[in-house]
Structure formats: C-alpha cells, structure tokens
C-alpha cells in the first residue's frame, strides 16, 4: 500500500484515486455546498514535537490535517529537520499507527521552486542546477505519497535585484514543474495529487491584483493547452507577514472572488499569530499555513521547563545552547529589517534578539548541542514531570485554536455525508 493510501483511513481511503486526490475533493466542497464555512489547516512540520502535536490536535478536533513542508525543512539532503520526504512520510505513518489515528492526513510540499531553498539562494546556483534540484525534490515527494504540491518559481536570482520576475516566465516555469510532476506521477502509476501555485511574498511580484489576474489567465490557458490539471489553491498576499497580527480582510475578499472564477481557492501563508482567525472561513480563504509561530510556542514551553529546572536548582544549559546555535546558524539574518542589516546579533534590541531566537529556533532543533541540552533538561526533570508531553500539550492547545477558528471541529463527520459511493 502506498503512503498516500495509508494516510487516508476508511472511509476516506476511497478518495485516493479521486481527481486531484482528497484535497481536490474537499476544495470542490469548499467552493460548492460548504462555501464560506471552513478553512483547511496546513502545518509546517518543523520539528518532531510540532508534527506529533499536530496529529494529536487533528485527532481531537476530528478534522483532516495537511502538512506543508518547505525544501528548507524536508528535502533529499534532510533539510533542517533531518527528514527526507520518505522519512517524513514514515514518521507520520508510524505516529498514525502508534496513536491509532482515524483522520485523513495529507503531506504537502510548500514553496517548491528554484532558489526557494536557502542554500541554493546563498550559493546563487545557476538556474538549471537549482531547477533540476527542484525536480528531484518533487519526484521524491511524489514517491513518498505527498498529496499537495505547491509550485513556486517566483524567485529569479539571475535578474537584477528588485526586478519582478516577468509573468510569462513565472507561468512557463510553473507549467514546466507541473508537467514534470504529472509525467513522473503517471509514469510511476502514482495516485493523483492536487497543486497549489502563487506566492504571498512581495518579492514574487504577484501582490498586485492586476498581475495576479494576468498570471492566472496565462497559467490556466497554458495548462489547458497541454491538458494539465488546474491548481486547487492559489497563494495570495492577504496582508500577513511573519511579524504581523492582522490580515487585510477586504483584499482577501477581492482575491477570493478573483480566484474562484478559475475554480480555485485562495490560500493564506504566514497565518501564525494572526488575530480574528474566525474571519478566514467567512471571507473564503480555503487553506492556511502555520509554522514559524509554532516554533515560538515550542520555545516558550521549553523556557518554562528551564525556569522550573532552575527553580529546583538543577543545572541546565538548554537556553544558552539554543541561543548560540541560532546565532552561529546565521539564518536569523534573513529576518532582519532594513535598518538592522549588517549589525551583529548582540547589537540588536533585546526584544528583537528574543524574536529572532524564537523564529530561528526551528532551524536548529536538530543541532547536536541543542539536542543534547534538551535531552539533559528532560532527564533532570523526569522525576517531576513528563517534559516531552508538556511541550506537546502547549503546542496542541495552540493548534486547537486554529481548528476551532477555522470551523474544523468534527469536520470529518460533515465530510462523510458528501463521500462518493
């Protein structure tokens, strides 16, 4: 049994062969009889704790769960989690069996495209090299049973800095990625998958609504000419950023109206920390990604454990090890504001240092020194508490906030009434 089928328990397993898979089926409902009522939740699996907690929360919510893994997180080189696509699929399937989960689970690729992997951008790889690496990653995702692929060729480091990628080029490369995925999938007799396109990044050049409309017109025409499937999600700039708490409701409504004309749904990224999440379903947002904010929740839980250990006079070094690993990784630099560029970490304002450590923690959870310090923290607290369960409980509580706001509690029961016979 392939991984996609294994992650769809009865009665949802009958949807494995549905056109564009279970995600295609659910999004059809969200554009039809269930319109403006629900938003699907996609979680970035940026740590083992987050991944386990997401599964536990989805089971308690009785709702489908989507995972959205970037190439930085999960790739053939292991990413910063240490997982390849196959390893992530194995981990999730093992957790599904261990926890006796009866919920639909869909693995997904997030921002799959040239130069979307940090190491490719830092090395400024030639286009063909980074493009071929993306194709290999897509193949690995399909082999692992991923059910949703976000294809995002909106970065082009061969253009002058600040130059938007021409829309015809974005369309051409999106079609090339999708064509390759479909050719590979069919050649290897793999189940249908759903596709996601577009970007929320301002640098991607699609934030202007007129450019988004032109992109969709050109893309749909190109896909039709080649007989390729249409994407079910279009990622749009709805005003969310990693360090904001609001989203642009009216812009979201306009993008929803635009995207639905193409038979797709708008998908919001950077949903972490957004207030009024309950408005997402009402304005038609079909899916939402969360991830970096969960790293902050995980860190806060670990800081509470460190404080408890120190209250008990136990020697722990986790917070120092984490801070040092984040600084040495250099990845905090990608989140610097313009006025902070070029400044050493220690010269930044204390609140900015704190934010950058929280945001950057996900990059170094698997760093040897951080792993060792975390094991020692858990061991020293073992006589008084289950530290691992404490961290997962904090994460699960936050994730359930999303399930509730997106009207996903017992969504599986509602979905079953629409299952094809």
**Strands of the largest sheet, in order across it?**
1-2-3-4-5-6-7-8
Question: The biggest beta sheet, please?
Answer: 8 strands, parallel, barrel
How many discrete structural domains? 2
Output the helix-strand order. Answer: HHEHEHEHHEHEHEHEHEHHHHHH
Net shape: globular
Question: Structural class of the secondary elements?
Answer: alpha/beta
Question: Which CATH top level class of the largest domain fits?
Answer: Alpha Beta
Overall strand count = 8
Mean pLDDT: 94
Extract low-pLDDT stretches: none
Percent in strands? 5-15%
Helix content: 40-55%
What CATH calls the topology of the largest domain is TIM Barrel
The CATH superfamily title of the largest domain: Aldolase class I
**Count of separate DSSP helical elements:** 16
- Quickly give the CATH architecture of the largest domain: Alpha-Beta Barrel
Description:
This protein has 421 residues and is an alpha/beta fold. It has 2 domains: 3-291 and 395-416, Alpha-Beta Barrel (TIM Barrel); 313-383, no CATH class. It has an 8-stranded parallel beta barrel with strand order 1-2-3-4-5-6-7-8, surrounded by 6 helices. The protein is globular, with a radius of gyration of 21 Å. The model has no long low-confidence stretch (mean pLDDT 94). It contains 16 helices and 8 strands. The longest helix has 21 residues, at 167-187. The protein has helices spanning 3-6, 21-31, 48-61, 85-98, 118-123, 127-143, 167-187, 209-226, 249-260, 279-282, 292-311, 318-329, 350-360, 368-381, 387-405, 411-416; strands spanning 40-43, 65-70, 105-112, 148-151, 194-198, 233-235, 265-268, 285-290.
């Amino acid at each position: 049994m392939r991984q996609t089928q294994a992650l769809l328990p009865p009665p949802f397993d009958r949807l494995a062969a549905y056109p564009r898979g279970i995600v295609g089926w659910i999004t059809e409902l969200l554009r039809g009889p269930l319109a403006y009522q629900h938003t699907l939740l996609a979680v970035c699996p940026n740590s083992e704790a987050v991944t386990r907690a997401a599964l536990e929360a989805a089971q308690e919510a009785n709702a489908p769960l989507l995972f959205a893994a970037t190439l930085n997180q999960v790739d053939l080189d292991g990413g910063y989690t240490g997982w390849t696509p196959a390893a992530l699929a194995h981990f999730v399937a093992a957790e599904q069996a261990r926890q006796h989960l009866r919920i639909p689970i869909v693995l997904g690729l997030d921002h799959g495209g040239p130069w979307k992997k940090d190491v490719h951008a830092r090395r400024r790889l030639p286009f063909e090299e980074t493009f071929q690496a993306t194709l290999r990653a897509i193949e690995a995702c399909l082999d692992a049973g991923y059910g949703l692929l976000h294809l995002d060729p909106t970065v082009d480091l061969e253009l002058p800095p600040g130059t938007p990628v021409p829309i015809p080029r974005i369309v051409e490369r999106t079609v090339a990625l999708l064509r390759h995925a479909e050719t590979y999938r069919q050649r290897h007799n793999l189940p249908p998958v759903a596709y996601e396109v577009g970007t929320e990044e301002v640098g991607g050049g699609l934030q202007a609504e007129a450019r988004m409309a032109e992109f969709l017109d050109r893309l749909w025409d190109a896909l039709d000419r080649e007989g390729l499937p249409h994407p079910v999600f279009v990622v749009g700039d709805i005003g969310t950023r990693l360090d904001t708490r609001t989203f642009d409701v009216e812009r979201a409504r306009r993008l929803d109206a635009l995207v639905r004309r193409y038979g797709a749904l708008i998908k919001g990224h950077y949903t972490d920390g957004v207030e009024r999440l309950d408005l997402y379903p009402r304005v038609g947002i079909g899916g939402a990604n969360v991830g970096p904010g969960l790293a902050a929740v995980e860190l806060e839980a670990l800081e509470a454990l460190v404080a408890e250990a120190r209250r008990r006079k136990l020697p722990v070094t986790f917070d120092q090890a984490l801070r040092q690993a984040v600084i040495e990784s250099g990845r905090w630099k990608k989140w610097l504001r313009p006025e902070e560029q070029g400044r050493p970490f220690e010269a930044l304002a204390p609140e900015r240092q704190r934010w950058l450590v929280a945001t950057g923690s996900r990059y170094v959870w698997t760093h040897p020194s951080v792993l060792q310090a975390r094991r020692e923290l858990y061991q020293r607290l073992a006589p008084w508490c289950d530290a691992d369960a404490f961290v997962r409980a904090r994460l699960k509580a936050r994730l359930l906030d999303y399930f509730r706001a997106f009207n996903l509690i017992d969504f599986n029961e509602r979905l079953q009434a629409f299952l094809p016979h």
